[in-house]
Amino acid sequence: MPGLVFDIGDTTSELQLARRIAGDFLQNPIAVFRGLEDQLGFLRTANTSATVPWEIDTDRPIRTIERTGEYEPGKGGGETVYGELTCKWEIRRIKPQNKKKHYPASQFELVGKASTVARIFRVGAEGSENQLLTTWRTEIGLGSAPGCSFHVQLGGDDGSSLANPLPVPRLPSIIATPAAALEFLLAELFQDDWENHVTSEPKGIQEWRSIQRERFRRLLKWQLKHTDVERGTPWSQLKKEMPASDMFVVQ
Amino acid sequence: MAKRDRPCILFIDDKLAAISSRKQMFVKKAEVIALTPDRVTTANLRKASVVLVDYLLTDWTDSLEAGPISTRPMDGLALAATLQSHCDREWPPTAFALHSAELEKLSSGLPAKASAHVIARENNLEWVFSKTNAQNVEPLAQQVLALAEAVALLPPKWPSTNHVWATVDDLLGLRAKAAWSPVARRHVASCRPPLRGLDGSGHGLMFLRWLAHQILPYPAFLLDDIYLAARLRVTPSSLARAMASDEKFAATLRPYRYTGALSALLGRRWWRAGIEHFLWRRSARSTSDEQTQSLASELSDHLTPFKLSEPVVILGDDFRPQDNLISIKDAVEVRPDYWPAFADTAWADSRSIKDEPLLDSIRVKRDPAEG
Predict the structure, then answer these.
(1) Model confidence at B285, in pLDDT bands (50, 70, 90)?
(2) What does R_g of chain A's alpha carbons equal in angstroms?
(3) Which tens digits make up the pLDDT trace of B117-172?
């Protein structure tokens, strides 16, 4: 079964826009995002059909700024926290048809793991370690993977203190890409500020909105389509459906 | 508009004796003309690739006859502006620079060595050079020659939109055949180079200014040795050792060295895209820290891994990168004036910033509660 196809240009733009829009909420936006963009850039002209990682390494996560209590509206929380985001996708370059081998590819396909991990830490007192409070993984399961294709799993899979011994539950999700998962994290951590920020129409928000809206529309349309069942239940149908490989490709 | 045959440096000083020794620095590399301000002609300006004006010209300014103040420049800065206005846009480009033993007077309290590009930018000059060699990042003659040679590289006429990237590639020494060149070009574009706007020779100088004032001093699409060490997850001192004494290692990285215009102005620089592509290709297309460190250990025995996680380069109280890396956990973001938005984040050591008032004053306070 072919993997889920993404447009390299769209995905790169999405990363650039995320860097621009979310920059004030992040500690280290430029270098980390640029790394992800570069990996796609190199793959574009690489003469390879091998599966390659597309990743933000756990040693160099995207890290948000620290804030106290903003994870509740009205700064109602009591903890001083920050978030981290890493991801690992296994992807493959789609060779352009009828072109020379180094002709720049415009698409890649997701062929294996697609996991974006968010972690929230409590800032430790002077001299003490920061404490991991919660973690979740935004994933896309393909092929014979169980559970809803787009899902979120609770806990880590990295042996950390919050590692989940079970792969369940796989909660349905509408988040697909690492950049979209970052917006989700920021909206959770900065309940008021993120809302105020994006509604103030910062530079780049129009393009970001356009990319996200198209993805959400396609994903929600696909979900809606598969809830219209005559046998079994909508959920059991949605749980076993796999998206078409070109679901996110804008023709 | 013809190109000049060879670089020509025009020194303008009220004390010519001081210049004669400097002439020797450029023998066989550039033509040198030394004149007092009252002897400069438009023909001299037309011939010069670089006009280097002394800042203090008191012997000359004191000798000027009383008259309207508009006809009496007070110093070399004012004289440079006057001479710039005599340059015709149809001539080959001419860079203007200041030469002074007292750059601090122009740096608004910032360390002169770290702010030559800022002084130049604020005073409509291509560069400023200190007469005190220790205040120049590289030896004076090398820097002046780098500027003169860069001017010589500029096309007589800036190309039309269709060909502009070919010219940018030429000026930056970017080889189109390199597998990483499309990514490098994207990095360059994200730094907003001046690609179109001015007719005549002025545009080439705008491009050089962008390179000298906004690119070379900061970690953007080019990296200096310290930022390279941080990327390779090794200590800067061990990288310097490996570059100096391990020819095989130096040769491995050579294709990624920046060799374009002004490459000798501020010291060795590396193409970020080239280094990233090298790591990506050599590390099974993974860019994880573990893979990078493992690769570094294979590259040279001289390289010492940096053990802490997420190494970052920190600025010292002179706003220059320090050659000791620290973990990002011990770092705090600072925002020096003029630090470009497209450059990597600037960091300082959170453990010592309180002892460095200048750095502390530009620390980024993320939480409104910090005041």
Answers:
(1) low
(2) 19
(3) 999 999 999 999 988 777 777 888 899 999 999 999 998 788 877 788 999 999 99
Taking the C-alpha atoms of residue A211 and residue A205, their distance in angstroms, rounded to an integer, is: 10
Question: CA of A232 to nearest chain B CA: how many angstroms apart?
Answer: 43
The single-letter DSSP state of residue A156 is B
| CA distances (Å), origin B294, targets B287, B289, B297, B299, B304 | 11, 8, 5, 9, 11
Alpha carbons B142 and A189: distance in angstroms, whole number = 52
SS3 A176: coil
| Domain containing residue B40 | 8-153
Nearest to B309 among A16, A37, A59 (CB): A59
B274 domain-assigned: no
Query: Does residue B17 share a domain with residue B148?
Result: yes
Interface contact B366-A66, CB threshold 8 A: yes
Cα gap B168→B189, rounded to integer Å:
10
- Count: domains in chain B: 3
Residue length of chain B: 371
**B94 and B207 belong to one structural domain:** no
Token code pair at residue B285: 């297309």
Asked if A16 contacts A41 with a C-beta cutoff of 8 angstroms, the reply is no
CB contact, 8 Å: A49 with chain B? no
Question: What number is the ipTM of this complex?
Answer: 0.83
User: For A38, which of B276, B328, B342 is closest by C-beta distance?
Assistant: B276
Q: Are residues B106 and B82 in the same domain?
A: yes
SS (H, E, C) B281-333: HHCCCCCCHHHHHHHHHHHCCCCCECCCCCEECEECCCCCECCCCEEHHHEEE
